[in-house]
Specification:
Elements: H1 5-18, H2 26-56, H3 68-76, E1 80-83, E2 85-88, E3 93-96, E4 104-114, E5 121-124, E6 126-127, H4 130-138, E7 150-156, E8 159-165, E9 170-177, E10 186-188, E11 194-196, H5 211-221, H6 229-247
Length: 248
């Protein structure tokens, strides 16, 4: 479940107003919100790595709903996609199919599909460096084949390129994509005020459990540090109640 960009923005405005810290325009908020969302997204990887090490030493709690490694993995699920790649004879490699909607963050499992052989072969493809690729390919004992293909990554004209050997008919790429930037969209009201427009807005793509953290981190950019997260929850409820009162 995503986090409402409207709820976060209005809570931020409410707290800034109470602290007499001025006003933040939608453009300022959207810019900071994008940065904070990506900052939290990137934090999952070192956090997940730390929790994985705890699993290996049997010090991690594996009780359902209290497994931190699972919790972090769950938060990444919305960003896991099967991303289409297309082969080009010009570059002799696979590049992300255009139009590119999502920006790749990390490539996961790559499957090479050899459909012109009988039976069809679908092989997990190992990622190696270009130097390793050249070294392995030169050896008769380790040379890649349809059952043990290799690939390395490079780029052409700024686009990611996957070089796979032997060249398959198609590849299936599982990857993580970056979160879509949040946007608080609006129309201009009769008094020149900003009026929230849900149709022109994009919510945060982070899990709803990150709402308080999002607000805390956004406030830091505007010079307010809150050490007690319960203040955020109370402020959020107050801001929501004020909005209801204004509409009634």
């Amino acid at each position: 479940m995503a986090v409402s960009v409207d709820k976060v923005y209005k809570t931020v405005l409410f707290i800034l107003n109470k602290e007499q810290r001025g006003y933040v325009t939608p453009a300022e908020f959207n810019s900071v919100a994008e940065q904070v969302q990506f900052q939290i997204f990137e934090s999952y990887f070192p956090d997940g790595n730390q929790q994985y090490r705890k699993d290996q030493t049997n010090s991690q709690n594996d009780t359902e709903f209290f497994d931190m490694f699972k919790d972090i993995s769950y938060k990444l699920h919305p960003f896991e996609e099967e991303v289409p790649f297309t082969y080009s004879a010009v570059t002799d490699g696979f590049s992300q199919t255009t139009p590119v909607v999502d920006v790749l963050y990390k490539i996961g499992e790559v499957i090479s599909n050899y459909t012109d052989v009988n039976p069809i072969i679908n092989s997990t493809t190992q990622l190696v460096s270009k130097a390793e690729f050249n070294k392995i390919s030169r050896s008769k004992l380790t040379a890649p084949d349809n059952k043990n293909p290799l690939f390395f990554t490079t780029n052409t004209t700024g686009n990611l390129l996957l070089k796979v050997t032997p060249t398959p008919n198609t590849i299936t790429v599982n990857a993580l994509v970056t979160p879509t930037p949040p946007n608080w969209g609006f129309t201009i009201g009769g008094l020149g005020q900003y009026v929230y427009n849900a149709n022109a807005s994009t919510n945060f793509e982070l899990d709803v459990s990150e709402q308080s953290l999002l607000i805390l981190e956004i406030l830091k950019y505007f010079g307010i540090v809150i050490n007690d997260p319960t203040i955020i929850q109370a402020a959020s409820q107050e801001a929501q109640q004020m909005e209801i009162n204004e509409k009634s």
